[in-house]
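From the methods appendix. Each design record in this collection lists the tokenized structure first, followed by the designed amino acid sequence. Records were kept in a plain field format so they could be parsed without special tools. The example shown here is representative of the layout used throughout.

RECORD:
FOLD TOKENS (199 positions):
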């Protein structure tokens, strides 16, 4: 191989390497220019669209409040137990308690609690029904029991499954729109006269 051929091969190899680097740089430059040209859409408050904000964490007092509500306390009672209300009026306590009940963190936590409570109530009702029906069956089948007690047990079982439902007659009353307007006007007049008497 002569020097010219060797130099030519070296130049070709170097030019290939350079062209690959330039192409890579070209892609990088194209990407950079496109990224720079992207317009970020923003909400009215100036924050970018599609970016989720971290949800604020629940405080220990909020957890205490939710726990008290789950135990059956009213929202007001739970707020008094969880927070220092010594310098608050009763109206403020009620307002803050209601505000907390609407807080998404509390309502999300309470959803699970209500579902569990609801399921417990359903389970208790089913267990109670089974127990009562079992006892009624025993009384109805007991040959030593009085006939009246056995019949009463059968009657109660029949009512439980809807055999002896009382039929009620429903009466539908058709009301005219004009009559409704007159009644509404009368109620408004009464309300205004009472209001004037108070003031």
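DESIGN:
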């Amino acid at each position: 191989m002569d020097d010219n051929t060797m130099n030519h091969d070296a130049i070709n190899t170097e030019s290939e390497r350079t062209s690959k680097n330039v192409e890579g740089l070209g892609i990088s430059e194209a990407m950079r220019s496109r990224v720079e040209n992207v317009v970020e859409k923003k909400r009215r408050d100036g924050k970018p669209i599609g970016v989720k904000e971290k949800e604020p964490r629940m405080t220990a007092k909020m957890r205490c409040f939710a726990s008290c509500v789950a135990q059956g306390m009213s929202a007001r009672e739970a707020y008094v137990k969880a927070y220092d209300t010594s310098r608050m009026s009763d109206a403020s306590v009620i307002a803050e308690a209601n505000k907390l009940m609407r807080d998404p963190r509390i309502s999300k936590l309470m959803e699970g609690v209500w579902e569990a409570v609801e399921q417990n109530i359903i389970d208790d009702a089913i267990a109670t029904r089974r127990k009562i029906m079992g006892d009624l069956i025993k009384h109805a089948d007991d040959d030593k029991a009085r006939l009246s007690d056995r019949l009463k047990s059968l009657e109660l079982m029949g009512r439980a499954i809807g055999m002896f439902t009382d039929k009620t007659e429903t009466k539908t009353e058709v009301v005219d729109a004009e009559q409704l307007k007159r009644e509404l006007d009368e109620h408004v007049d009464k309300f205004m006269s009472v209001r004037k008497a108070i003031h």
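APPENDIX NOTE: Residues 104-164 form one domain.
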